[in-house]
Design brief:
Elements: E1 15-16, H1 18-33, E2 45-46, H2 48-61, H3 74-82, H4 87-95, H5 97-106, E3 121-123, H6 129-133, E4 138-140, E5 147-152, E6 164-170
């Protein structure tokens, strides 16, 4: 099968190639079009970050997740690239305007800092009911992104968890 027609999924070793790089560029162009300050690295590797960003783009375009049950096919990637949406997908896309606005605010930065300057995706290895019992999350951010250490302010009890002190920047 030619590289261009592969179905993208997370594999070990990671899928690599020019088709992956073109897909990363398509994802970044879509985030730019939506004016969302979110970019995936253009590095020819299909990893979890690219996989999660792909899902976000499909959701924002109104494409049902069932279409990616077995991975991101060449046909699906071309559908995203060309924005060849069905009338139902176009209607769904219109209803997701609020979600796209939320994403724009989420990645805009400024104001109160999140634990990292730009959280690209998150994962903790749990899903379903196990997700509800998990008390942490693994943050995935760009290489060398500043990470802010936040802890309770000295002298404050657990009854005031919203008061925090930024200890510093970890790079």
């Amino acid at each position: 099968m030619p590289e261009e027609h592969r179905t993208f999924s997370i594999t070990q070793p990671l899928m690599q190639g020019g088709d992956v790089k073109r897909w990363q560029e398509i994802l970044n162009a879509q985030f730019d079009e939506w004016k969302i300050e979110f970019q995936v690295p253009v590095n020819d590797e299909y990893d979890k970050l690219i996989h999660d960003a792909s899902h976000k783009v499909l959701y924002g375009l109104g494409i049902k997740p069932v279409k990616v049950k077995h991975g991101f096919t060449h046909e699906l990637r071309m559908k995203v690239r060309d924005k060849s949406l069905t009338p139902t997908e176009k209607d769904t896309r219109r209803t997701r305007l609020g979600w796209r606005q939320f994403q724009r605010r989420k990645y805009a930065g400024g104001g109160v800092c999140s634990p990292v300057s730009k959280i690209l995706t998150d994962a903790n290895g749990f899903s379903g009911s196990a997700q509800e019992d998990h008390d942490g999350v693994d943050l995935i951010c760009p290489e060398n992104a500043p990470i802010f250490a936040i802890c309770p302010h000295p002298g404050q009890g657990d009854d005031l968890p919203h008061r925090a002190l930024i200890l510093g920047i970890i790079t």
